[in-house]
Amino acid sequence: MNNEVWFRPFVWMDYRLAVLFTVIIPIILLVWAFVQKADAIQRLLVIYWRVSSLLAITVYLMIGGFGVSFLSGLIGRILIPISLWFWVDLNDEIEYHPDGALKLLFTSWRWATTVYCTLGTIASIPFVGCAFSDITSDNPYCRVWLEAPLLYKEYFHANSKPGFLGFLGILGLIIYVVCLSYFVLVKLGKQGRSATPQ
Question: Is the pTM of this model over 0.85?
Answer without folding.
Answer: yes
